[in-house]
């Protein structure tokens, strides 16, 4: 699963390291060497339009300093390098490295989208000792945005409810999921989303696990719940299908344990 490795320590202050790990992003893609998917050396950064002021500390991975940055949309990859979607690198790099890359992508995205104050348009300044931009004119502060979302696997006897989301590119059956609304608890979001998406009521909510999901900045919080009452009535804007999967059914094919969704489903496979 995409997760933070034990050898990672977050850092807030830039370090002067001659050979850092440079995570460079452009519109959700990461720059890697075509041959071996290695990260670019610091010597390549000026040609990408990246100066020292646009390098943001991420942390230390097994003693090696990690920094993150972003490039303008039309920046070509240097010879021998390519822009690669993060998902296409899962399995090619280990999960811990990809977990750090996910952190780096969120920091780069936060820096890219907070160059100017959203209140008064003054250029923002980094606060020392915190992962925070502060407006020198009006004091507005901006931390990296993290968007919590719930995921729930509903159980009924020896069956579980899986759904096909209309937005699912992979056309896979998965547990229900959805973003929190402002002012909502995670439990309230589970009950609301379940009722909105499939017309059911659930009880016995039990925490399963959580996972940072850097597309672009979600925190997925997964639960199991037991069916209480109601008949399946799907929200056709969100779902194309939802049904119970029991021991006699053809379950969705197993996929690598990159996201919490596959782990949650596999924990209930007959
Ligand atoms: Zn301001």
* Cofactors, ions and other ligands in the entry: zinc ion
CATH superfamily of the largest domain: Nucleoside Triphosphate Pyrophosphohydrolase
Reading off the top of the CATH hierarchy, the class of the largest domain is best stated as: Alpha Beta
**Biggest sheet: strands, sense, closure?**
7 strands, mixed
Low-confidence stretches: none
3D shape? globular
Task: Quickly describe the structure.
The chain has helices at residues 95-112, 186-198, 260-266, and strands at residues 8-10, 21-26, 29-33, 56-61, 64-70, 81-85, 125-126, 133-134, 141-142, 147-156, 159-165, 173-174, 176-179, 201-213, 218-229, 239-245. With 270 residues, the chain is α+β, with helices and mostly antiparallel strands.
Describe this structure in words.
The protein has 270 residues and is an alpha+beta fold. The protein folds into two domains: 8-113, Nucleoside Triphosphate Pyrophosphohydrolase (Alpha-Beta Complex), CATH 3.90.79; 147-266, Nucleoside Triphosphate Pyrophosphohydrolase. The chain is built from three helices and 16 strands. It has helices at 95-112, 186-198, 260-266, and strands spanning 8-10, 21-26, 29-33, 56-61, 64-70, 81-85, 125-126, 133-134, 141-142, 147-156, 159-165, 173-174, 176-179, 201-213, 218-229, 239-245. The strands form three sheets. Strands 10, 11, 12, 13, 14, 15 and 16 form a seven-stranded mixed β-sheet that branches. The protein has a six-stranded mixed β-sheet with strand order 1-4-5-2-3-6, covered by helices on one side. The model has no long low-confidence stretch (mean pLDDT 95). Bound molecules: zinc ion. Zinc ion (ZN) is lined by residues 117, 119-120, 122, 135, 137-138, 140.
């Amino acid at each position: 699963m995409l997760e933070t490795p034990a050898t990672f320590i977050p850092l807030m202050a830039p370090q002067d390291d001659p050979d850092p790990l440079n995570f460079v992003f452009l519109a959700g893609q990461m720059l890697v060497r075509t041959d071996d998917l290695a990260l670019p050396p610091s010597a390549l950064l000026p040609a990408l339009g990246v100066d020292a002021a646009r390098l943001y500390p991420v942390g230390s991975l097994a003693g090696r300093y990690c920094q993150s940055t972003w490039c303008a949309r039309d920046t070509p990859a240097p010879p021998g390098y390519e822009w690669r979607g993060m998902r296409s690198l899962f399995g090619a790099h280990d999960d811990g490295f990809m977990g750090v890359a996910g952190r780096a992508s969120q920091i780069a995205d936060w820096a890219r989208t907070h160059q100017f104050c959203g209140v008064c348009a003054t250029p923002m300044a980094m606060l020392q000792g915190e992962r925070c931009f502060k407006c020198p004119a009006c004091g507005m502060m901006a931390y990296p945005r993290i968007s919590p979302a719930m995921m729930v696997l509903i159980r009924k006897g020896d069956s579980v409810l899986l759904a096909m989301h209309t937005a699912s590119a992979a056309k896979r059956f998965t547990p229900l999921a959805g973003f929190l609304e402002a002012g909502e608890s995670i439990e309230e979001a589970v009950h609301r989303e379940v009722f909105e998406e499939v017309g059911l009521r659930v009880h016995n909510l039990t925490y399963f696990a959580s996972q940072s999901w850097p597309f672009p900045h979600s925190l997925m919080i997964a639960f199991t719940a037991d069916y209480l009452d109601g008949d399946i009535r799907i929200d056709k804007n969100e779902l194309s299908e939802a049904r119970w999967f029991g021991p006699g059914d053809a379950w969705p094919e197993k996929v690598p344990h990159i996201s919490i969704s596959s782990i949650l489903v596999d924990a209930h496979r007959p």
